[in-house]
Fold this sequence. Notes:
The chain has helices at residues 31-43, 60-65, 80-87, 101-109, 125-138, 153-162, 211-222, 313-323, 335-346, 376-386, and strands at 20-25, 47-53, 75-77, 91-94, 114-117, 142-144, 169-177, 195-196, 199-200, 229-238, 247-254, 260-265, 275-280, 283-288, 293-298, 304-307, 351-352, 359-361, 370-372, 403-404. Helix 1 (31-43) links the parallel strand 1 (20-25) and strand 2. Helix 4 runs parallel beside helix 5 (125-138). It is α/β, with parallel strands linked by helices. The longest helix is centred in the N-terminal third of the chain and has 14 residues, at 125-138. It contains 10 helices and 20 strands. The termini are far apart. The radius of gyration is 23 Å and the shape is globular.
Amino acid sequence: MRRSTAPAVVPVPVVPAVPVPVVLAGARGHGRWHLANVRRLQHQGRVRLAGVCELEPLTADELAACGFGHGEAPEQSDDFGALLDVTGARAAIICTPIHTHTELALAAAGRGVHLLLEKPPAAGWADYARMAEGVERAGIACQVGFQSFGSHALPAIRELVASGAIGTVTGFGAAGAWVRDDAYFRRAPWAGRRRIGSTDVVDGVLTNPLAHAVATALELACRGRSEEVTAVETELYRAHAIEADDTSSIRVTTAGGPCVTVAVTLCAERPGEPYVIVHGERGRITFWYKQDRVLVQRAGRGPEETVHGRTDLLENLLDHLAQGTPLLVPPASTGAFMRVVEAVRTAPEPAPLPDRAWETRYDGPGGGPRRVVPGIDSLVAAGAESLSLFSELGAPWARVGQAAAS
């Protein structure tokens, strides 16, 4: 028998991927989380911190605290556009005050730089639409920083709903009861502001600190599409001496399905994990989105709890650039949330709670004073449970008739 000879196998050299040069705009506050995440991915060879944009440069100690040695010091500047130019950045993370998002995003888009844009993407609908149009026209990738959208629990919940596990969905509720002290509202000039001069800021509980509760519920209800939102009813209140709301409830009416009701506060008696409830005719699904934890309760079966993994949004952006992996949070998926932001922006000024409705305590994380609304934890939970606004729950300080059409 004649034996065939296989051709010699010539090994193909493996060419390591070149780390993507990244510029971070806003490296203090929440930006420290992004700085540490960039360091993690830099250690894996996926990115390189090329630049940091801050009004005051980061010190060597601040960089070292996130794991960057002296030989890894990035370029620093307070001029975002110039920094993108000098570093040759291919991607940028924008973690700056809300009202600066649009202009910085457009500056990156104009240079062909891909984006991870922190939430909320803009302070109002017009700026959001301008940003989204500029990004699309430039042909860049833009990922909005709703980290909960990276949770593997979301597709699992959709599959449960599609399978009929809880029957026909009757509504979506979301609740968030957080503790924030007075110092939280003094952390930056824009904190707790609705506007600065003629510039919208809209830094309220619904639009910033507990924005994930709103956006995650809308993602489950209508995939976050703006065209699905037909109306937004708002009840905005404040216990703190600020412009924006710190205790609020909203109801979003959607064109093709049940409503979404959200109740949130920064004046909780005790801090709690925020969550979203999918209500069904034969059961319910509760999703603690910060923990990626899901509890299914349905007729005829015991409760089932699962914990899911999560895809990091910057990693997903890198995978999109390298191999076309779909983005988890493109601007279009935040359109419904931006309809809520716009409704909050144009709503009547948040109503100050009467003095008898709140009290001062000194048991916050930093030991400083904080304002607490007694009974608010139960009201927030009841809002998500019954899909009711605060006024409908009989809160003595709630005012009826704050509805705002979107």
